[in-house]
Amino acid sequence: TADLELMQAALARQQMAGKLAPLMILRGNLPGTKSMVPWAIPLKRGTVLLLPFTLWSPSTPEIARDLVKLAPQQSIYAITSWRANTGRDDFRSNEVLEELRSWQRSMPKKVSILIVPNSVLSEFHADVFPAGILIRDGVVLSNTALSSEGAERVLVDAFAGNKDAH
To answer: What percent of the chain has pLDDT above 90?
Structure first.
C-alpha cells in the first residue's frame, strides 16, 4: 500500500534506538555570515541532540524553542541538506543559504544550523521534518518525528534518562 513505505521508514527510525549511531562524527557546514564554516560534531562522547528540518517545515523554530526550554543546558544542532530543501541535487543553493541564515538568526542561541550531505540524513532515516535524534556516547536513544508536544516530551524524557522514552 502507499502507507507501507512510510511505515517502514518510521520502523527504521524506531529501531535505531538503543543501537550505535551510524556515524561517530557528524560533518557539515555552518551557514556563517560571510562563508560556510566547516564543522564536526563528535557523536561518540557526551550527548548530542539533532533536529533534522527543512525550510518548508514551518514548525521547526517553535519546536527548537520548546526543546531549548525543556533541555536548556543542551546544544541543539538543526541539521538539513541542500537536497532536502530543494528536492533536487545535493548542491549549494544561494537562495536556500540566505533563508538558512535568516532562520539561524531567528533560532535560540543554543540552536546551530548545520548543512550536511543528504546521505547523512538518510543514514539517520531523517525523512520527516522536523524530527529529533538524541545520541548519548555514540548510542541513539531516540529518533522520532516531532509532530506534537507529546513527541517533544518523549525526546526530552529520553534526554533525562527515562528508559520508557523510546
So the answer is: 56
Q: Is 78 exposed, middle or buried (0-12, 13-18, 19+ CB in 10 A)?
A: buried
Residues 6+ apart with CB under 8 A from 101: 31, 33
Q: Which amino acid is at 17?
A: A
CA distance 33 to 42: 24
Spatial distance between the Cα atoms of 45 and 127, rounded to a whole number of angstroms: 25
Which of 150, 124, 87 minimizes the C-alpha distance to 12? 124
Rounded to two decimals, what is the model's pTM? Answer: 0.88
pLDDT tens-place string over residues 75-113: 999 999 999 999 999 999 999 999 999 999 888 899 999
